[in-house]
Design a protein that fits this description.
Elements: H1 2-19, E1 55-65, E2 69-79, E3 87-91, H2 105-112, H3 117-123, E4 132-134, E5 140-153, E6 161-162, E7 167-172, E8 184-195, E9 207-218
Parallel strand pairs: 7-9
Antiparallel strand pairs: 1-5, 1-8, 2-3, 2-4, 2-5, 5-6, 5-7, 8-9
Length: about 240
């Protein structure tokens, strides 16, 4: 999963850098996954902790969604030292404490200039802590939304069946507010691990699985909404 996250980030940057000169209006291209093989298909209710960091496809029913939220995807920190022009960029993680850069490399090099190698190694342990200020103009925010989803098992010859549990999936950018409750969709998503929302102490070791959606397709079946399908049992989510 870490490699996939890195791949998606770098690929989007390359994509935007390459096509920016062709854009008549400022915009940002977003990379999406599509058409994963049958080997990637899984049932949500079969997920276990051993599946974290893996990419799967899920046939799902959207049973709920939150309002759109904002998420600080990339923070920009400008060194506050007089005369220093260094700006550090830190990719942030969703629903985690904001991370800040460490020692300013420009100030560190200025502080260590002229020292021998052995002296530099010793002096690096006692470098003064760098101070930063947020560079508001270069912060990157994106839209995110939490979806509540359940397994569906399509059956072209008879009623469809639905899973037992409700799972949480996170969508962003162009997927936000695009899929109403009742939509039948195939999610291409990586399995992440997150804290319990209702945890009562900081070091709670319990975790929940959450899906980070990298692509969405309609199902192979012609149905696109819950009301278009006959179900094996009365829906409990409504």
């Amino acid at each position: 999963m870490d490699n996939l996250d890195r791949f998606m980030t770098v690929a989007e940057q390359v994509l935007n850098d390459r096509f920016i000169k062709y854009m008549q209006q400022p915009c940002r291209l977003v990379l999406r996954l599509n058409g994963l093989t049958e080997q990637h298909k899984r049932r949500l209710d079969s997920l276990r902790m051993r599946d974290r960091r893996k990419l799967f496809s899920f046939d799902t029913l959207i049973v709920g969604r939150t309002p759109p939220l904002g998420y600080l995807k990339r923070a920009a920190y400008a060194c506050a030292a007089k005369g220093c022009t260094y700006v550090g960029y830190i990719e942030q993680r969703l629903a985690r404490q904001r991370e800040s850069p460490g020692q300013c490399p420009v100030c560190a090099e200025r502080y260590l200039a002229g020292l021998a190698q052995e002296e530099r190694e010793m002096a690096m342990r006692f470098l003064p802590r760098s101070k930063y200020r947020m560079n508001d103009e270069e912060l990157r925010y994106i839209d995110v939304q939490y979806l509540s989803v359940m397994d569906v098992v399509p059956d072209g010859d008879g009623p469809w069946s639905i899973g037992q549990h409700v799972w949480t999936a996170v969508v962003d950018e162009d997927f936000v507010d695009e899929y109403p409750v009742g939509s039948l969709v195939r999610l291409h998503a990586t399995v992440h691990v997150d804290h319990l929302p209702e945890r009562t102490f900081d070091k709670d070791t319990r975790r929940v699985m959450i899906l980070r959606v990298e692509g969405i397709e309609m199902l192979d079946e012609p149905a696109t909404h819950f009301d278009d399908v006959t179900w094996t049992s009365e829906p409990s989510w409504r």
